[in-house]
C-alpha cells in the first residue's frame, strides 16, 4: 500500500469524514482528497506534500513522523529528518524529561 492508500486507511480507521479529517489536520478537504488519491486532480501529477504537511498528518493521525514518511518515500533532504525523528523517539522513551526540554526549545517562538 502506498502513501495515498495509507492516508485513506488512517482516516477511515478513525471514522472521520474527509472534511473532519482535513479540519483536524489543518489543511483543506480538497488537498486531503488529492493526497488520498495520490495525484493533483487538475494535472494528474503526483502530489508531493511539504514537510510541514507531513508533520501535521502525523500529529492528526497519531502516527510517528518517521513511519509516515517511510510510506511516502524519502526525498534526498529528508534523511536528516528521519535520523532526528528516530533520535527523538528514542529519547522520549529513555529520558522523558530531556525530551520535553527539547520540545520546548523546538516550539519556542
Would you write up a description of this structure?
With 109 residues, this protein is mainly alpha-helical. The chain folds into two domains: 1-73, Orthogonal Bundle (434 Repressor (Amino-terminal Domain)); 74-109, no CATH class. The protein is 69% helix and 0% strand. The protein has helices spanning 3-13, 18-25, 29-37, 51-61, 65-72, 79-94, 96-107. The longest helix has 16 residues, at 79-94. The chain starts with a helix and ends with a helix. The mean pLDDT is 85.
Assembly annotation: single chain
Kindly report the CATH topology of the largest domain: 434 Repressor (Amino-terminal Domain)
Helix content: 55-70%
Shape annotation: elongated
Radius of gyration: 15 Å
CATH class of the largest domain: Mainly Alpha
According to DSSP, the number of beta strands is 0
Mean pLDDT: 85
Low-confidence stretches: none
Order of helices and strands: HHHHHHH
Strand content: under 5%
Question: What is the SS-derived class?
Answer: mainly alpha
Second CATH tier, the architecture of the largest domain: Orthogonal Bundle
Number of helices: 7
CATH homologous superfamily of the largest domain, by name?
lambda repressor-like DNA-binding domains
Query: What is the total domain count?
Result: 2
